[in-house]
Specification:
alpha/beta; Molybdenum Cofactor Biosythetic Enzyme, Chain A; two-stranded antiparallel ribbon; 8 strands; about 20% strand; globular
Length: about 200
């Protein structure tokens, strides 16, 4: 069912946690609460979330992404989990399969941030893509599986005085959504300051 905006600038977000064991109830999922918590702190604009907890099955991931963009009408879809080199990690392949265009800068910057903490960041295969239909477009981004890593990649790295050392990827998300025809998204600058060129700012 198509989501309805309560306000023209309401952001419709799809949140997808990809985990065999969490989706089977073996342990409690941490990805969806981590995403929900961060967006709750970072967004000033109204937003609604549509959440899915699914196993590491490529066909399921693909159909879930298509549903959230084409049927629900999400402007942004954030996935967590399934991006490593293990054989069951197929989130990037599923994401690329449903994409119309790739946005390689998102994956590059996520690995840049994670390398500040662990050398194994080079094993991460997260991607960012666009999925476009005749009348709608959405940004889809693969994120890490752990809440701490989710926060780091979205928010970036800050010095003790609060200045940004390495920009998080979410700084570019509101402008990207604006460019593809989505709502005007505003952020809480204490958490993550969105960047737009002056020509794209609202008066």
């Amino acid at each position: 069912m198509r989501a309805q905006r309560s306000h023209p600038d309401e952001l419709i977000v799809g949140l997808v946690s990809v985990s065999d064991r969490a989706s089977a109830g073996v342990y409690q999922d941490q990805g969806l609460p981590g995403l929900r918590d961060w967006l709750g702190r970072a967004l000033k604009s109204p937003w609604q979330a549509h959440e899915r907890l699914i196993p590491d099955e490529r066909a399921t991931i693909e159909s879930t992404l298509i549903e959230l963009v084409d049927a629900v009408g999400c402007d942004l879809v954030l996935t967590t989990g399934g991006t490593g080199p293990a054989r069951r990690d197929v989130t990037p392949e599923a994401t690329l399969a449903v994409a119309t265009r790739e946005m390689p800068g998102f994956g590059e910057q996520m690995r840049r941030i994670s390398l500040e903490f662990v050398p194994t960041a080079i094993l991460s295969r997260q991607v960012g893509v666009l999925r476009e239909t005749a009348d709608h477009a959405a940004l889809i981004i693969n994120l890490p599986g752990q809440p701490k890593a989710i926060q780091e990649t979205l928010e970036g790295l800050k010095a003790a005085d609060g200045t940004v050392k390495v920009a998080g990827i979410f700084a570019a998300v509101p402008y990207c959504i604006q460019l593809i025809g989505g709502p005007y998204v505003e952020t809480n600058e204490i958490v993550c300051k969105a960047f737009r060129p002056k020509s794209a700012l609202r008066a």
